[in-house]
Amino acid sequence: MSAEAWEALRRSTQARIALGRAGHALPTDAVLDFQLAHARARDAIHRSWDIASFASSVAARGWVPVIASTPVTSRVEYLKRPDLGRRLTDDSEQRLRSCHDPAIDVALIVTNGLSSTAMDRHGLPLLDAIVAALAAEGLGCGPICLVGNGRVALSDPVGAALGARIAVMVVGERPGLSADDSLGIYLTYAPGPGNTDAERNCISNVRPPAGLSYAAAARKLAYLARQALILKLSGVGLKDDEPGFALPKP
Amino acid sequence: MSYRVSLQGRSLVFRDLKTLLARASPLRAADELAGIAAESAEERALAQWALAEVPLRRFLEEPLIPPEQDEVTRLILDRHDAAAFAPVSGLTVGEFRDWLLRETDGERLAGLARGLTPEMVAAVSKLMRNQDLIAVARRIRVVSRFRNTLGLPGRLSTRLQPNHPTDDPRGIAAAVLDGLLLGSGDAVIGINPATDNLDNVHALLSLLDELIQRHAIPTQSCVLCHVTTSLELMRRGSPVDLVFQSIAGTEAANRSFGVDLAMLREAHDMARELRRGTVGEQVMYFETGQGSALSANAHHGVDAQTCETRAYAVAREFAPLLVNTVVGFIGPEYLYDGKQITRAGLEDHFCGKLLGLPMGVDVCYTNHAEADQNDMDDLLTLLGVAGCNYVMGIPGADDVMLAYQSTSFHDALYLREVLGLRPAPEFEDWLNRMGIFNGRNALAGEGRNVPLLADLTGLAGGSA
After folding, report:
1. B394 has which bridge partners?
2. What is the average pLDDT value for chain B, to the nearest integer?
3. Which CATH architecture has domain A46-231?
4. How far apart are CA B345 and CA B364, in angstroms?
């Protein structure tokens, strides 16, 4: 079979097909390519996140950053103890409670999650798009809560402390070999104790240009937020049935 | 009942049997996360002493999860075969380890399966080193049949796993052909669908069925959708070879997967009625993995490895063609690093085999675990020595749909070469006839005339 034909097949899938071989083994190029992808994914997971610098950028945009903490003390602990990444420290909870404001419709929470690379690359431009899209819906955001080493369910204590009607978390997704810089967005209506992941909506794979664009993600989020407030729920009961909107093919 | 140990000036008491098992379990993140692991290495070592003294009979008298709360416990107790248990019924867990290592007759080991409960098997595994788990598992062959014969001595099969992020039929077909041309796919050609949508799964089943028929490939297909999806598709006449389901070791965990024993029984009976097998009628394909009960918050304080072994009681009720422990998929909060993944893979393989199951292992990890492809090479090699029935074959070991890393088509070729392991006999004949293998358990050279290449060329939209 010709090289052109193999090339055409290779374009039909991101899978590592038609790699060739050296004896029974993968050829050198294929081994090194895999190891580079794995190295990038590992670095994205283990890199620390410069939260102070991120907070300065947030403040420079005229928004109010609030830095909060989970009880997690290291990246290793973060990986082994997902339960700790879902909780606020007592200090942080107090600080957020002092920001409690009934005018806050949406609590915006930002955490590096499993990819600091994703947050550093896409976090600020995505926030630009989200803040604009929510404002266009007439929804007030309050301070932007920045937390290192958070898990998705941290949406609940943060949202509850701020008194928000909806919590929106922007989080670094678990890196794969083909993408180390995807952000996810999770929406929770009536954040508080007892919510499960079945009560959240997720917008995944935000990483232009290969994945979802900032504008498309923000628009989808604003649509879901409006529907959640009308239906008074989120999660499996809130279907993404926005007319005339199709996600671009990956 | 409590369990005690006094040794070299230290005394410890364990509240009940499940606590003792958890404390005696080799260290893993799942048990730490659940708050049931030993608090020190010494406590673990002492718990293993205490566990060694427990009579095997005790596991029949003290169910870890009450039967009135859990149908898996009821199944385990109902199915216990006292006659098969007789050869070891007077032994303690520690004596049972010695018995297993002395008993070199594979037939006698296999004959024990119905007399053992998962808890007995999990318990003895906690006292066994990795080499013990390998040595005993190697003596037990579990053979299963549908369109070929899996699990014979000296054989290693592979599941060809051609997943695609959007289930694109062309991309999937390309990966299937790539795998077949590298000798993969005798255990099953099995797709994890991106969505359980009925039309989508039907289209994938039809694609695989047509390919298998056209080239008379002695293998079976599976789309790994939920059992209820398979039930509906069978009613509609889709070409379902094997019914897939993820299962776990407690009723509550199975409920979180949306299944129970009655539902599995219905699917099993319906698939057998289709009579699509040629050399056998084992129609079920189950996947398991340590930590699933904990992640569903349905572990009842039972350690991850014991919960996993209880899932094998569910599996063996339905005489499956394939059982696969997806060992490192679940993440580092359950199995933290290569060492824990390796240990768990060997435990699962041993426990499944001893309970009479045709065990395969998805030797795998996620990017946030402390593991890499070298760890997979190690575990793959150990499982080859241990006589594992099958492993996964994934293009370049990189599953682009499920976003984790496993073993590649090339990895299976490596294992075949270094250990002399051959594919299932019917499939090996086919590989030789098709010019893919050279008659000596290795790929034929370049420039061969392989009929499958015509399919590839057609897919690519060009001429050969």
Report:
1. B408
2. 96
3. 3-Layer(aba) Sandwich (3.40)
4. 10
**CA angle (B184, B190, B192) in 5-degree steps:** 130
DSSP per residue over B73-117, as a string? HHHHHHT--HHHHGGGTT-BHHHHHHHHHH---HHHHHHTGGG--
Q: How many angstroms separate the CA of residue A146 from the nearest CA in chain B?
A: 22
**Domain spans in chain A, listed from the N-terminal domain onward:** 46-231
Look at chain B and count its residues: 464
Check whether B28 has a pLDDT greater than 50: yes
> Read out DSSP for chain A?
--HHHHHHHHTT-SS------BTTBPPHHHHHHHHHHHHHHHHHHHS---HHHHHHHHHHTT--EEEE--S--SHHHHHH-TTGGG---HHHHHHHHTT--TT-SEEEEEE-TT-HHHHHHHHHHHHHHHHHHHHHTT----SEEEESS--GGGHHHHHHHHT-SEEEEEEEPPP-SS-S--EEEEEEES--TT--GGGEEEEEEE-TTTSB-HHHHHHHHHHHHHHHHHHT--STTS----TT--PPP-
Which of A17, A171, A182, A204 best probes binding to B when mutated, by most B CB atoms within 10 angstroms? A17
3-class DSSP state of B153: coil
Residues near B100 by beta carbon (within 8 Å), at least 6 away in sequence: B109, B124, B128, B132, B136, B354
The confidence score (pLDDT) of residue B371 equals 98
Q: Nearest by CB to B462, which of A5, A24, A114? A: A5
**Gap from A198 CA to chain B (nearest CA, Å):** 12
- Chain B CA closest to residue A47: B368
Interfacial A residues in 11-70 facing B (CB < 8 Å): 12-19, 21, 23-26, 30, 34-35, 37-38, 41-42, 45
The third-level CATH classification (topology) of the domain covering B10-139 is Annexin V; domain 1 (1.10.220)
Phi/psi zone of residue A16: left (φ > 0), alpha (ψ -120 to 50 degrees), beta?
beta
Mean pLDDT of successive 10-residue stretches along chain A, which has 250 residues: 78 92 96 97 94 97 97 95 96 96 96 96 98 96 96 97 97 91 96 88 91 94 96 86 51
Mapped onto helix, strand or coil, the DSSP state of residue B38 is: coil
Residues 409-428 of chain B with CB under 8 A from chain A are: 410, 413-414, 416-417
Domain with CATH 3.20.20.70 in chain B: 144-433
Q: Where in chain B is the domain with CATH 1.10.220.70?
A: 10-139
CATH number of the B144-433 domain: 3.20.20.70
Residue of B nearest to A2 (CA): B464
CA distance A2 to chain B (A): 7
A31 CA to chain B: closest CA distance, Å? 9
